[in-house]
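Schema walkthrough. Field components (list of strings):
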Amino acid sequence: MEKAIKMKSRELNLFYGNFQALYNINMDIEENRVTALIGPSGCGKSSFLRSLNRLNELIEGSRISGEVFLDDSAIYEKGINVVELRKKVGMVFQKPAVFPMSIYENVAYGPRIHGIKKRSELDEIVCRSLQSANLWDEVKDRLVAPANQMSGGQQQRLVIARVLAVQPEVILMDEPASALDPISTARLEELIAILKTRYTIVIVTHNMQQAARVSDYTGFFLHGCLLEFNRTEELFLNPRHNKTEDYITGRFG
Amino acid sequence: MPGTRIGEKALTCLLYLSALIIIGILLAVVGYIVYKGLAMINLDFIMQAPRRAGKEGGISSTIVGTLYLTVLSLAIAAPLGVGTAIHLEEYAQKESYFAYLVTLTAETLAAIPSIIYGLFGFVFFVIYLKLGWSIWSGSLTLAIMVWPTITRTAQEAILSVPREYRENSLALGASKWQTIRKIVIPAAIPGIVTGMILALGRAIGETAAVLLTAGTSLGMPLSPADPARSMSVHLYMLAMEGLSMERAFGTAFLIIILLLFINYLANRSMSFLSHNGG
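Field assembly_structure (string):
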C-alpha cells in the first residue's frame, strides 16, 4: 500500500547567522502516524521541528535553503500565508505556556483569532477540544477559572486543547513531557495514541523509552544531520549506524 | 575597618540610620503639610473661585486647570509612549541604528530639566503655533516631558512578558499585531499603568514648564484653548508673592491628596485590567 505522506523536507538547510543548524535534511512524515525526533541537545531536532511551521523565522538572522512541503504545497514559497500554515500545523511547546486568562478563553483564543464570534459556536469548540484533550471532565465546572491555577499536566493538556481548537492537520510537539511528572506523562502518551488517529504528529523527545512507546517512525539527529530515519522498531532493534546505537543505548547524549 | 566585627556593626548602623532618616524626612514633609494645610481644607476652599489674586476664596479653577492639563497631556503622551515602546520591543531590529537612536533620544529627553521644556513650549506652542498661553500649549509641553517616562516603563513591561506567550500565540496562527494586542499588551498592562502613574505625578507637580506655557490665569478654564493656572503654579505664586501662606499649604495638601487618589484609582484599574485579561 502506498504510504500517505503529509509533510516532507527536501535538502533542507537552516542557518542562524553564520551557524548552520541543519544539513540537507530529507524526511517524509507519514499521515496519521507519530514521528519521533531524537538526538542529543543541540543536534538540530527542535530546529527541524520549528522549520515545519516556520517558527524559526522569529529568530533574527535565521534563513533556510531547500524545501518543506505540506501535502503538495511548498511552505517556504513566496506568497504562502503563514497564518494559514500555522493553523494547519499546530505546535505544543516544552513549557506549557497558558495565557494569563481563563481556561475557556485559552481554548477560544485560536478560534476567535480566526474570526469565530458566535458564543454557541465557541462553546461547542471549547467543549469538543477539551474533550479531545482528555481534560473536559476535570475542568467543565470551572471554565472561567484562571488557567494558571491548574497543575502542570493539566496545563499541558490545556495547551493541546488550545491547539486542537484551531483544527490543525499536523501537531508538532517539542518535548511536551519534559516538565511533567510520570503520571501526567503517561496520560499525555495515551492522549498522543488517540490523537494520531486524526492528526499527524511529530514529537521531539529526550526520552528514548517515550520515543519507542509512542512513535511509529523515529529520526535520529546528530550535529545537524539526520543520521538515521526508520520505522521505530527497526531503528531501536537494528540501528544501522553505530552512533545511533551508542545514543539509544545511552553511551552518550 | 570593614571586615572587623566593629566595622561591620558600625556600617550596619549607618545604613540603618540612613534608612531612618529618609523615613523621617518623608514624615516631616508630609506631616508638616498636613498639619498646616488641613486647617484650610473645607468645601468652600475646594469649590470657590479664587478672589483677590488668591488671597481670598478657594482654588476651584486651579483644580480644574490641573485636571485638564494632566488628563490631556496623558491622553497625548500615553498612546505615543506605548506606541514607541511597542515599536522598539516588537518591531525594530534590536541592533538597528534607528532603535539605538530612539532609545538614546528617550533617555536624553528624560534628563532635560523641565524649565528647558517650558522654554521650548513657550517658543514653539505658545508663540510659533499661536496656541497662546493655553491648556493646549501646557498639555503638549507636559506630554513631551512625560513621553520618555511612559516609553521606558512600557518597554520594561513589554520585555517582561514571557517569550513563550508570543510563540504560542503565533503558532496558533495569530498575526504579530493580534499577538501584541491580545496577549502582550494585556500581560504588560500593570507595568504600563505604573509608568502612567509616574508620568501623572510628574505632570501634576510640574511648575516651571506649565507656568511658561499655560499661563497664570485664575479664570475658570472651559475649553483647552483657555489659559489656566495649575495647582502647583498657584502654590508657587501664593508663596512667592507672599499672598497667603495658609492657602499655599492648603493647596499643597490637596495636591498630595490628589496624587494619592490617582494612585489608588490606577491600582484599582490595574487589578481590574489584569484580572480580566484586557
